Amino acid sequence: MTDALTITRLVPADLPAAAPGLAALLLDAVDDNASVGFTASLTAEQAAAWWASLDSDLHEGRVALWAAHDRDRLIGTVQLRSETSPNGRHRAEIAKLLVHRVARGRGVAHRLLATAEQFAHVSGRTLLMLDTQTGSAAEHLYRRAGWTPLGTVPDYAADPSGTLRPTTFFHKSLAGR
Length: 177
Description:
There is one protein chain. By secondary structure, the protein is an alpha+beta fold. It has a domain at 5-126: Aminopeptidase (3-Layer(aba) Sandwich), CATH 3.40.630.30. It has five helices and seven strands. It has helices at residues 15-31, 44-52, 55-60, 108-122, 137-144; strands at 5-10, 63-70, 73-82, 91-99, 127-133, 148-158, 164-173. Strands 1-2-3-4-5-7-6 form a seven-stranded mixed β-sheet, with helices on both faces. Strand 4, helix 4 (108-122) and strand 5 (127-133) form a beta-alpha-beta unit. Helix 1 crosses helix 2. It is globular and about 40 Å long. The model has no long low-confidence stretch (mean pLDDT 95).
């Protein structure tokens, strides 16, 4: 991992300046055929608009968003999406853990995941959930990071090319940390 890696939490005021870099990360993931909720037809404008749409969720505290930079280049991001229903305020979901292809294999994803987990813990969240494409590098990352698989659903989500892929759901308890 590079010594120049910094991870910062983004606030709504950061979104306009960060949107192009975040959009580039999302486009890179989709171009690499990652099943992250978008198809291959995603444009830079659509990707930037999707990130900008997080503004109210960030304002209301439903989403926490971090960006990883290597010097002045945005190379990764992760979200923590908090449950807001009265009976679910103890849990949250890890979402959109993205690392640019040029930065993979240097521990960036692990650091982003650990940052989101630590924030969840200090925020009183005791249960985390996530899902990822079965057999992906992300699935292996989550297993190495101590996440417990719940099960796999066949044909759960389409990858960017439109092919239905299985998805593995995971959980991690933060109680007693």
